[in-house]
Amino acid sequence: MAEELPGVLILDIGGTHGVLEDLAVLLKKHFHLITMKEFLGNKEEMSKKIQSIFVFECRPTVDRELLESLPNLKVIGNSGVGVDHLDLKMISSFGVKVTNTPHAVADPTADIGMALMLASARRLVEGSVSNFPGPSYFFGMPHLCCDRDDLPESIFGMLLQGKILRGL
């Protein structure tokens, strides 16, 4: 069955640079996974099977030499945000398409941005540090004095509720 699935080239599974193991399980449902080590060990046979490259955290590096060695390559799937690490002009000259997920993290990024602005405007870090026991340094910065009256009680309620809900 795995031989009938289209081959996808990945750097590795797990480790410090490989595709996350949970993601590899998902990919295996639709593709025959071929690691870069397997590909380099048997280029002649493997190059015919590979129809896709899955780029995870900018790896594997897609260069002219790799593209020339993959005659059946149809698509490069990029898992990151942005494609600056890919030479789109060169890749398209081989007739290969590139996919990307440009809005995949747009909502979480906006959420974090809003949280940081609110935390900054309400001095939450300073309030948390001065009102909760803990080390004398927070994120490597010395405690800054702030007046508890400067922060609304509702903010402290949210902080405590979040800690209780997460079991901290």
Automatic annotation (TrEMBL):
Record domain D-isomer specific 2-hydroxyacid dehydrogenase catalytic: where: 28-112
Name the source's superkingdom: Eukaryota
* InterPro entries hit by this protein: D-isomer_2-hydroxyacid_DH, D-isomer_2_OHA_DH_cat_dom
**Is Oxidoreductase one of the keywords?**
yes
> Keyword annotations for this protein?
Oxidoreductase
Pfam families per UniProt: 2-Hacid_dh
- Does ATP-binding appear among the keywords? no
Return one GO MF term. Answer: hydroxypyruvate reductase [NAD(P)H] activity
Q: Which GO terms describe its cellular component?
A: cytosol
Which PANTHER family does this UniProt record tie to the protein?
A: 2-HYDROXYACID DEHYDROGENASE-RELATED, 2-KETOGLUCONATE REDUCTASE
Q: What is this protein called?
A: HPPR reductase
Which organism is this entry from?
Answer: Drymodes brunneopygia
Lineage of the species this protein comes from: Eukaryota, Metazoa, Chordata, Craniata, Vertebrata
